[in-house]
Design a protein that fits this description.
The chain is α/β, with parallel strands linked by helices. It has a single domain, classed as Response regulator (Rossmann fold), CATH 3.40.50.2300. About 40% of the residues lie in helices and about 15% in strands. The chain is built from 5 helices and 6 strands; from the N terminus they run αβαβαβαββαβ. The two termini are about 35 Å apart. Mean pLDDT is about 85; it is low at about 45-50. GO terms for molecular function: DNA binding. Keywords: DNA-binding, Transcription, Transcription regulation. This is DNA-binding LacI/PurR family transcriptional regulator.
Length: about 170
């Protein structure tokens, strides 16, 4: 929930009034959680879903861009790369015309053009917690059945900018 609030809040703070969500399959639990969180944050905005790939991101972002969305929160880095490609194929510039944010901070996201803003998960802390829980179970120590939640981080690079005025492509 915090991750989607961070990403959508970043775009709204830049003046993007139409922020859309590009997600993976709805039967994928992380995608469902992202959709629920985003919906709670921006219920007034139209939402799109796509397969968790560059191609899926391209298709969903194309639909959103045609409807006038200028801010795109993507549920994964591959989806965000597809969104950047869709903007370029529509003759738009990232971030001047369309802003895009990915999710997971994949290793090469600072090497893309423009470098992609993403939401980073604390993978090391998450892994340590998983190992600790597993060791406790092996040692027959009771472990809580609750879900563990970790604080994400918005890694700001160059794929967003203040909302500008552009015409919607046909």
């Amino acid at each position: 929930m915090a991750a989607m609030r961070m990403a959508a809040g970043h775009l709204r703070a830049l003046g993007h009034e139409r922020v859309g969500m590009v997600l993976g399959s709805p039967d994928h639990m992380p995608s469902r959680r992202k959709m629920e969180a985003f919906s709670a944050y921006a219920a007034a905005h139209g939402l799109e879903c796509a397969g968790d790939s560059v191609e899926g991101g391209h298709a969903a972002a194309t639909r959103l861009i045609r409807r006038g969305f200028t801010g795109l929160v993507c549920g994964s880095d591959p989806l965000a790369l597809g969104a950047v490609r869709a903007a370029r194929w529509a003759g738009l510039r990232v971030p001047q015309d369309v802003s895009a944010i990915g999710y997971d901070d994949s290793a090469l996201m600072n090497c893309t053009e423009p470098p992609l803003i993403t939401v980073r998960q604390p993978i090391e802390v998450m892994g340590r917690a998983a190992v600790d829980l597993l060791v406790a179970q092996i040692d027959a120590v009771a472990v809580p059945g609750d879900e563990l939640l970790f604080e994400p981080e918005l890694v700001v690079r160059a794929s967003t900018a203040p909302a500008g005025r552009r015409s919607v492509p046909a």
